[in-house]
Structures are given as structure tokens and as C-alpha cells.
Amino acid sequence: MIRSVSRKLLFGGSSFRCNRLASTLAFVETNKEGSIVPSSLNALNAARGFNNDLVVVILGSNASKAASKLKSSIKCENLKKILVSTDEQFDNYLPEKVGPLLVNLLKDKEFTHFVTASSAVGKNVLPRIGALLDLQPICDITKIVDSKTFVRPIYAGNVISTVECTQAQKLIGIRASAFDPIAEGSSDTAVIEDIATVEGDSSSLQIEWENANLTESERPELSSASKVVAGGRALKDKATFEKLLTPLADVLHAGIGATRAAVDSGFCDNSLQIGQTGRVVAPDLYIAIGISGAIQHLAGMKDSKVIVAINNDPDAPIFKVADFGLQGDIYEIVPELTKKLEKL
Ligand SMILES: Cc1cc2nc3c(=O)[nH]c(=O)nc-3n(C[C@H](O)[C@H](O)[C@H](O)COP(=O)(O)OP(=O)(O)OC[C@H]3O[C@@H](n4cnc5c(N)ncnc54)[C@H](O)[C@@H]3O)c2cc1C
Q1: To test ligand 1's pocket by mutation, which of 241, 274, 277 has the most ligand atoms within 8 angstroms of CB?
Q2: ipTM, interface predicted TM-score of the complex
Q3: Is 297 annotated as a binding-site member?
Q4: What sections of the protein cross the membrane (predicted)?
């Protein structure tokens, strides 16, 4: 059961006051080193667009460090407060732990909007908050029309819907690739405040974080990489996938992605899958190698700024979305392209 707490408990001894003006609460994620996750910077830019007072909440053992970093690294005139809780129960952002705290913040009707990135964490947390507050969240927003009207893709990107939200509080998830990151600079007037944990809410939950089994890589993170080299079924096997794609990705300092066919065939880890049931990316440059361009794959990459497709089938659908198409054998074109780029 969610126990409501008085504002005094929630905000400790601080003097947080509800000014009854519209304001936005933005949830910012950090990685385990305490750096702000890039998609949160895009979400902050979207949140800033509401043009009302912005309050950021950062949770987990690194929250204080991250709050200071955020304050000194982004330029946001309407950023008024950064609320932090360094309680380690929030590390890893288990929604069962994070949800009750955010719900208590949102019970303050001062907040007309709650904004998070539609990241794995955001997608985990948002529905829980929606259920606890009996509000309908709106996910994967690609455009904010006004304070209650949002654009989001549905049916794997085949339909772009514009939705109007009549709820007093709007819970929204931002598709990070559709928004620029917030401008760099500093937000000197923002105040950093500690918030107390909501006692009793999560300690009774029979859920604990065990461990994370993540693929460590020196490469740029796929969702935020400015260049992505992606391979499909034509790569034949894991060894060929790596042999052909890695040198090209190295020379371009690009992230590596794949189609579901490539993932299902065991060419690479499933964290590299791009598409409807994988990651959504929108890099400056996307090179599709031996990828047919199935609608489910396009759903994850068609917003890339420049798309280059290499395929031996002139009728491959990928050419319809490509800015540059190279028709031919990937086993000839990719090594040649890599060699030429290495010489630049
Ligand atoms: C519910 C659902 C969800 C899905 N989600 C996703 C998703 O998230 N992401 C995703 O990618 N897919 C997804 N799929 C699968 C999707 O429908 C396609 O099957 C998949 O994207 C095809 O991958 P591919 O392009 O690698 O393979 P193929 O469609 O087999 O294409 C291979 C391409 O390589 C070309 N080729 C072959 N040899 C060479 C060569 N030597 N030189 C040059 N070109 C060559 C061929 O001409 C062909 O165009 C989903 C499907 C369903 C039903």
C-alpha cells in the first residue's frame, strides 16, 4: 500500500513551497559512474519546451554528484530545483522502488507535467506511476505541439498520431532521438535539495536487485551514437559479421547495430537489435549493410539523418528510405569503403 506522507517528511526540513503555478517534474537518469544518461538530456530539452518552472529529480547513490554536474553543465533558465535522494535503494531504478517516491512528488498538484526519456528505465517507471496515480501515460513522444497535445508514432511507425491529453497531470515519455539534447552552459540559479525517502513504501516489497549482465563495449552507446553501422542476414555468421563491420565501425567511430534476423542467427548480442522490438536510433549517419529494409527494422532507424544502404537487390525496400544507395556485393563494397575511409 502506498502510504502518503506529509510534505514536511517528503522534503525533509527544506522550504519547498507549492506555488500553484504550472511546473514540470523531469526524471533524470545517471549511469553507475554518476554521469547523466544522454537520453535524459534530450528529455530535459523537451521538458524545457513547456516553458514553465522545471524541477528535476535525480535518484541513487550518485545523485548529489550528478545534480552538481547537471547544474554546471546545462543552460536552462527555467530550471528551479534539482531534487536528489542518494538512497542506494534507487540504484538500478527498480520501478517498485522509484515509483512510490515519484508518485508522492506528483501528488503535489503543482506539477502539471512529468517527463522522462522513453529509455528502458523510463518505459519501466512510467506505467507504474500511471497506474498508481490512475493516469494514462503517453509514451514515445516525438513532438510536443502544445502543453496538452503530443505527436507519437503507432503501428511500428506506420501511423503518426496526434493525441490531446485532458488530464490535469500529463505523464509523458520522450523519444530521445526526436529531440536535441539541452544546450550546454550553466543553470546557476537552480537550487539542489535533498528529499527524504518515502518510508515504508518500498521496504515492504519483496523485490531486490540481483545483478546486471551487460555487454561491455568501448563503442559509442547505440542509442546515442552519431554514426551507426548495422548489419543484416547477409553477413552469414558471427565471424563474418565482426570481420566486415568492426573495421568500418572503428574507422567511423560508430556504434554497431543489427537486424532481428542477424540477432536471431546469433551474429551478435540482442542488445544490438534495431527496430520495432529493439532499439530506436536516429544517428547523423546510418549505414545499412545487407539489410532488406523490413518495416519492423525501419521503425527503429528511419529517422536517421543520412541513410546509406548497401544491398545487391535493386528492389530492396531499404533503398526507398536511403539517401545514398550502393547496389552491389557487401563483401566487395564494405572492405573497399573501409580502406578508402582509413586513408582520409
Ligand atoms: C513482430 C515482429 C517484430 C520484428 N521486430 C524487428 C526488429 O525490431 N528489428 C528488425 O530488424 N526486424 C524485426 N522483425 C523482423 C523483420 O520482419 C525482418 O525479418 C528482418 O528485419 C530482416 O532482417 P534482414 O534485413 O537482416 O534480412 P533479410 O530480409 O533476409 O535481408 C537480407 C538482405 O541482404 C541482401 N543481401 C544478401 N546477400 C548480399 C550480398 N552479398 N551483398 C549485398 N546484399 C546482400 C538481400 O538482398 C536482402 O535484401 C520483426 C518481425 C516481426 C514479425
Answers
A1: 277
A2: 0.99
A3: yes
A4: none
